[in-house]
Amino acid sequence: MNYTKGPFTLAEALKALKTNSTLATLNLLSNSIGDNGAQALGEALKTNSTLATLDLTGNSIGDYGAQALGEALKTNSTLATLTLELNSIGENGAQALGEALKTNSTLAYLSLGSNRIGENGAQALGEALKTNSTLATLNLQSNSIRYKGLLAFSEALRTNKTLVTLDLHGNLIQSKVLQVFYEALNRKTPLGILDLTCNMMEKNDAQAMSEALRTNSTLKTLFLAANLMEESGIQALAESLKINSTLTTLDLQNNSSGVCGAQALSGALKMNSFLTVLDLCHNLIGENGAQALAEALKINSTLTTLYLQDNSIGDSGTLALGEALRTNSSLTTLDLWGNSIGDNGAWALGEALTTNITLTTLYLQNNSIGDNGAHALYQGLQINSTLTTLDLWHNLITVKGAMILCNVSLICHSSRG
């Protein structure tokens, strides 16, 4: 039997959703259903009473399709998760969804990444958040949101009681614009996860964020990667960590924190007892920065994950980290990918493994560890009873080193053809 391909055929198929009483999840990612398919889904959702999760990522849906879905959300009482990333709903589509959110009482997750919603779309969503009482997660990655959009969200957070996660990744928001938003964090808000990755945060923004973190009591996860904060900005944030008692995850990768930034964070970690995950990948901290962080690890008892990829810490920095690991009792994951670590650094880590009882994951990819380093790690693994993952991809280990490591069941498992 021959079937005609395209959105109209799909529209016919989706009619079944109007009466279906069992389907709870529908994934239509990358299917090019277009506006016609979205309109058919909208009609079905008006009467469907079981569908809870709908993924329409990458489906060439424009504002008309989004408007149809918005109309459906005004009456639908079961859909909790809606993903519309990588479409073209634009500001009109976002405005339609915003209107729906003012009355909808079930949607908890809405993802609109890469949809060109712009300022007007963001304003509409911000207005909706003033009255909406169910939405917990809003993803607005890469949507060209600027001052007016951020101001709308800042105002919404004055009264909103449910939004926990706000993702503004990749909106290239300028420095002065961001400072308007930080005022919202000084007020009591349910916001627990905030993503400002790939914007244009500078040192002044970091200072404003630092002030907010001194009083904020809800934010637990903060993504600030790939901004322009540099050493002085990181130093300002570090000061707030000495006081803040709620933040558990902080992503600062690719911010040019340098040695001074790492030293400031070291001072904060000696006092902070809440942070569990710290990402400092690609930050030019060097061996001195690593040494400073190592000193903090000797005292800190809460940090469980430390990412230090691509920081040129070398053997000297690794020696300091190895010494810290001998006594540290909290770190479970250490990422040292791409740090020019040679056999001496591997030796220090191997020695640490003989006494460390908490580390479970050690990433050493893309370094310069040879057979002697492999042997040192092997010696540590003979005694260690906690490490479960060791990644040595792209080093200088030959067959000789590999054979040594294969004596440890953790690393090499026999296979039968």
Automatic annotation (TrEMBL):
A cellular component term, taken from the record's GO annotations: perinuclear region of cytoplasm
Pfam family, one: LRR_6
Gene Ontology MF term list: GTPase activator activity; small GTPase binding
Keywords in alphabetical order: GTPase activation, Leucine-rich repeat, Repeat
Gene Ontology BP, a term: nucleocytoplasmic transport
InterPro entries: Leu-rich_rpt (IPR001611), LRR_dom_sf (IPR032675), RanGap (IPR027038)
The protein's name in its UniProt record: Uncharacterized protein
